[in-house]
Amino acid sequence: MLKAAVVILNYNGREMLRQFLPSVLQNTALPYEVIVADNGSKDDSLAFLASNFPEVKVLASKENGGFSKGYNTALNQIEAEYYVLLNSDVEVTPNWIAPVIALMDSNPLIAACQPKIRSFQDKKSFEYAGAAGGFIDHFGYPFCRGRIFDTLEEDLGQYDDYKEIFWATGACMFVRADIYHQLGGLDEDFFAHMEEIDLCWRIKNAGYNVYYCPESTVYHLGGGTLHKSHPRKTFLNFRNGLVLLYKNLPSSQLYTTLFVRMVLDGIAAIKFLLGGGFNDFLAVLNAHFNFYKNLSLWKQKRRDCRKLKIIDSNTGILHKSLIWSYFVKRKNKFKEIKFCK
Fold first, then answer.
1. Which of 1, 186, 262, 312 is least enclosed by beta carbons within 10 angstroms?
2. Where are the beta strands (DSSP E) in the chain?
3. What's the structural domain count of the chain?
């Protein structure tokens, strides 16, 4: 069995593979293997891989099932102790795998981990999707050490410590294969966006930990498949944000937290409309209608999550509003955010 399988999910990403796959191959050797899982690409990605990287194992699906189904389908075919979910637009560095695996080997309770994520375009700064480890606030808004909403910090070594976090980014997530399958993998109904946060929440509620390893660094381009300003991404983020809370919150917090989140979503929708973002306004409305329409599905998923629960983990949750701290109190760096003990 492989120690770790580095699995790159590809969808119409020929140019990303051309640009970034060489760094992955150059810096990945046995007992690790690089595998490309193609998600029903319509471009010539498969032919490009066969011609230019014949040594790379390819698992091809006939349809694009999104990030979640694409990975679940591929990982069900791979035997390894650890999976490394790696975006196709990530440049890795020498010795990027070993420190993370060593950390996870040292503690069997660490089920998932991420390296330091810097920006490919500005390599001194942290990158939006992950930075130095993910957290969420009381109402389900994700943020990172090194990134609060759209404010990115320069990496000055301020986050060079090992740290238990709330979620590890799907751009480069290390996860124990047995626990991944035990918890059902990524939720395929999320399709894409926030599915890794949902998985990490289930991991933590099942009694395991999620960590950040500063000794490994990768550079993420971001927005390679769907730009963050695209209305489809707006829909997925708002819909999945509601589902995330509904599935995982303790019963004592569920309805009051959801109500406030819906009010905040309404304010965001009005802000989109007043700012000329009519398509984003519609995307928020559609996200809420979709959530209500599929409420029976989300109820079943919540019941399934409650069956897996050992504890309701609070580590990494900011028990107040990040929106208030950021937009009203003007706190835009992680060190300025005060977590309750």
1. 1
2. 2-10, 32-39, 57-61, 80-87, 90-92, 110-119, 134-137, 142-144, 147-148, 151-152, 163-165, 172-176, 209-220, 317-318
3. 2
Contact 110, 210 (CB under 8 A): yes
- Regarding whether 246 and 109 lie in a shared domain, the answer is no
User: Under the phi-then-psi rule, with left for phi > 0, alpha for psi from -120 to 50, and beta for the rest, what region is 309?
Assistant: beta
On whether both 143 and 290 belong to a single domain, the answer is no
Does this model's pTM top 0.85? My answer is: yes
Do 137 and 171 have their domain in common? yes
186 found inside a domain: yes
Domain limits at 185? 2-220
**68's tokens:** 């979640």
What are 151's strand-pairing partners?
Answer: 148
- Running along the chain, 341 residues long, what does each successive block of 10 average in pLDDT? 97 97 96 96 96 97 94 98 98 97 98 98 96 97 97 98 97 98 97 96 95 98 69 96 96 95 97 96 98 98 87 86 94 90 57
Are 269 and 137 part of one and the same domain?
Answer: no
Cβ-proximal residues to 30 (8 Å cutoff; 6+ apart), any chain: none
- Please give the Cα distance from 314 to 320 (Å, whole number): 12
Q: Are residues 198 and 294 in the same domain?
A: no
